[in-house]
Amino acid sequence: MTSKKTLAGSLLSLSTGLLLAVSAIGGATASSATTQDPSGLQVASTAIPSSTAASYWTPERMRAAVPGDVLAEQAVARYESKGRNSSPEITGNRSSKKISGTSGQRTTAALHKDERPVSHIGKVFFTLAGVNYVCSGNSVVADNSSTVATAGHCVNQGPGAFATNFVFVPGYNNGLAPYGKWPAKTLYAPSEWSSEGNLEFDTGFAVVASVGGEALADVVGASGVLFNEERGLSYKSFGYPVAAPFTGQTLVSCSGKASDDAINPQFNSQGISCDMTGGSSGGPWFIPGDGDTTELGYQNSVNSYGYGIRSVKMFGPYWGSVIENTYDTASSAN
User: Fold this and answer.
1) What is the pLDDT of residue 309?
2) Residue-level pLDDT at 15
3) Which residue from 114, 151, 144, 283 is spatially nearest to 207, judged by alpha carbons?
4) Burial environment of residue 198 by CB neighbours within 10 A (0 to 12, 13 to 18, 19 or more)
5) What is the value of pTM for the model shown?
6) Around Cβ 142, how many Cβ atoms within 10 Å?
7) Closest by CA position to 328, among listed 31, 47, 3, 50
8) Residue with the larger pLDDT of the pair 246 and 100
9) Farthest CA pair distance, the chain
10) Strands 121-128 and 19-22
11) What's the pLDDT score for residue 199?
12) pLDDT exceeding 90 applies to what percent of the chain?
């Protein structure tokens, strides 16, 4: 059954902004916790220091951050090494397959569109295993007005440790942070991602600290979210691709009707036509709204992974009950 989350029927509607998720090097460690609701769905989380994260991300570190798609590539490789790939013709052929975001010759017809900044979409920067990464993300409606949606591999190694030095930079544009840097104080992921790295659940959420005494959504706005929708819908996705031929400095979008991943159907993912590269991981997928959300519509997935050095599809996880439960836990946290 479809689940819709809005801000009392009238979310803030801001038409400019970007969102980017990044993983940073170093930083303090924090203990993780796992909670379980009455339905048995589990959510992993960790509290992380937020006081120094914004200052850690200097312009130099932001420019040098590694696109987070390499983490998704590792997750695909782990599953294929376990023999979970149901397409025999490509099993064992990792040398010819790369996650979307690698450099190389691409198709001549562009599958993306350049976009103006969107206030509630931005970049995410974070640290995992001593490496600084960059992804994309989006401010979503929440009881705490401080929740950011991104890819699971942009908050947790899957399986493994949670990120540190996590900041969200909404509305990022050509090196500028017009709404500031919002450090995360708690990160959340489905336990199926944090303990298994299962790409079926490659979505994470960050609850960010207030900046200047104000909550994130009160400053940049927030998108409504939908869960348990029918498959095969038409989407518009956004992200900040960094790997060539992109620079990661401006917002990009792709649009198309979703179709199932025939290469790894066990991921339960859907793909749309898209040539975005690494750095776009975690960017939001929108389906049309009905007048009670931002003009972009409701968020219903994130950029997760793609195949091939000439990749023409971006895949995103199906937002069902497991991811909804993770969202509910994050969005109601203090």
Assistant:
1) 64
2) 31
3) 144
4) buried
5) 0.83
6) 25
7) 3
8) 246
9) 56
10) parallel
11) 95
12) 69
For residue 81, what pLDDT band results from cuts at 50, 70 and 90? confident
- Tokens representing 327 are 């969202």
C-alpha to C-alpha distances, 33 to 53, 93, 193, nearest whole angstrom: 21, 37, 14
Q: Which of 205, 207, 216, 192 is nearest to 155 (CA)?
A: 205
Q: Report domain extents, the chain.
A: 3-331
Distance CA 332, CA 334 (A): 7
- Report the distance separating Cα 185 and Cα 195, nearest Å: 21
Contact call for residues 97 and 307 (beta carbons, < 8 A): yes
What pLDDT was estimated at residue 290?
65
Task: Express each pLDDT in 217-239 by its tens digit.
Answer: 999 999 999 999 999 999 999 99
**Residue 164 amino acid letter:** T
Quick one: tokens of 83? 């023999």
SS (H, E, C) the chain: CCEEECCCCCCCCCCCECEEEECCCCCCCCCEEEEECCCCCEEEEEECCCCCHHHHCCHHHHHHCEECHHHHHHHHHHHHHCCCCCCCCCCCCHHHCCECCCCCCCCCCCCCEECCCECCEEEEEEEECCEEEEEEEEEECCCCCCEEEECHHHCECCCCCECEEEEEEECCECCECCCCCEEEEEEEEEHHHHCCCCHHHCCEEEEECCECCECHHHHHCCECEEECCCCCCEEEEEECCCCCCCCCCCCEEEEEECEECCCCHHHCCEEEECCCCCCCCCCEEEECCCCCCCCCCEEEEECCECECCCCCEEEECCCCHHHHHHHHHHHCCC
Q: How far is CA 279 from CA 49, 50, 248, 250, in A?
A: 24, 22, 7, 11
End-to-end CA distance of the chain: 28
**pLDDT tens profile 16-46:** 332 233 333 233 344 466 665 444 569 999 9
Question: Confidence class of residue 13 from pLDDT cuts 50, 70 and 90?
Answer: very low
